[in-house]
Here is the input.
Amino acid sequence: MNSCTLLIGHAILDVLESDRGRTTALGGIFHAARTLWALEQEFVLGYFGPSYLDAEVQSQCDQLGAKAVIKLGNVTGSPNVVIVGEPKEAGDQRYEFVRQESQATEFDLAACATMLSSQSFTDVLIFSGGFALDLVFSSLNPTGTSVHLDANFDLPSLSTIEKLGRPLESLILSTSSSAFHGPLQSSFEIARETALKSSIAFILKENRGGSRYSDQTTNLVIPAFPADTVHSVGVGDCYDAAFVALRKHQSTNVALRCASMLATAYCATLSAEKFREQVKRVLDIPNEEISDLSGTMVTWEARQSIHIYIAAPDFSHCDRRSIEEAFHALKYHNFTPHRPVLENGEVPAGASQSVRASTAEKDLQLLEQAQIVVVIPLYEDAGTFIEMGIAVQAAKPVIVHIPNSGELNLLTEQLATAITRTTEELVSKVFQISSTLRHGIK
Amino acid sequence: MESSASGHFEDYRPEKTPKSTPLGSSGSAGERDICDREILNARLEEIERAEYYISNSKIPIVGTAVRVRQQLVKGRLAIETSKDGHSIGYLPTSLNYLLGCIRAGRTYEGVVVAASEKPVPKLVVDLEPS
Here is the structure.
């Protein structure tokens, strides 16, 4: 049988907020659908959604060449709208599900049964959350098909998965998900151990730090291949769909690396056509090169040991929003940023020599221990540039982050390892440098 | 990563064409093919481990003609001198997408636009697709 993937999940309307304004697009299950379209892989779409989206769902599926579209359940009480406050996931994406608390999702068992009996597919990829997963598993039980579960929005219990009557083929999570940080305590090992009780394989997607695959015999660390990010919505879903489709004909390692590269392509454009072009190019790269290509690899837990000293006039009388934004973005990604003024204290005017000497010493110790220094020159503060000079002399990577200003002093510009102008650029550069530090490349 | 995000937000959907014919190619209006873009101010990495520095104990000068090597070197995209084919450094991994473009037949050539030895060797190149 030719490959055909059954996609099950919600049809969502994504609303992306940016400094360029607001835009909308069908999201949810459609990120995976677009990926399969770009891969020229057959798929069937089984969706849950409110009735006002039905026509648009059908229209998009027609354009994407879906083999069939079946509505598995109607959503009431909620428009299935997600407002994405931070489309590039520099920090928390600030997803807001509009009226999620009043969302009610029916499950049309008859429609599901008809779908399963009338359509043939080789894999099922489910994006759980907001529907009765146990009923879906019960319905899939007799089919014997491989079932992959992206459980970012709803991590099912063992008893729910048992309704499938067999292990999942893969259980996929992301470090962006509440499931990873809640019941799984932000631990890869706990997540892996939990997942492998009910799944043949476990995959943890770790944003710009890569991803990890684990089954009973194999552990793989897959690099991310970050590039210019236009948006970060649905990128993980793209990865999932690409992996499920490609694993049929490729080794697990190559399939995962390709999935990572396609995820990059997905976030680099809003044009479906441009995405598909890039997908074709990636697929034309020989497998040996796919396997050899270096990228960014910094696991979730490894980032905690990356200490980042934020050199800035972090004083109470200054507008510190850009410092706070950088700090929180780095914390979100599990790095260990330091704001020495907050940690060691802001020395008040007239402070004693003892306080001044002690504070300076603590700041310098913190600087010495850091692996990366981020300089945020809100204004021409002598202390900030002294710290930068010390870092440069110690051969530490120095990122000068200037979200609000243009020209830099000559030596500041020339001695910086990198200059960033947006939080997304800063985070990406920190990932890249961290990966280099971890793998010993200068 | 030296370049900033480009493009503008709009609805993300393929062009409306019948299923049986190829989809339209217009996509996002005005968005250049990623393989057609110039690469400006790309700061090279691992300069001291590149062939040129190892052979000459110095870096090439501004204006040196360079190109992207067609084969990966230890998983990286290398920049080499157009004249002798000696690697001078490696592109940042954020430009790895170029491998797909190269395998699709593109080549990339350019020049060294900045070069300095202190405090650490630094090379910056501009590249154009050809």
Remarks:
- Chain B touches chain A through 52 residues (CB under 8 Å).
- Chain B has a mean pLDDT of 81.
- The helical segments of chain B are 51-56, 98-103.
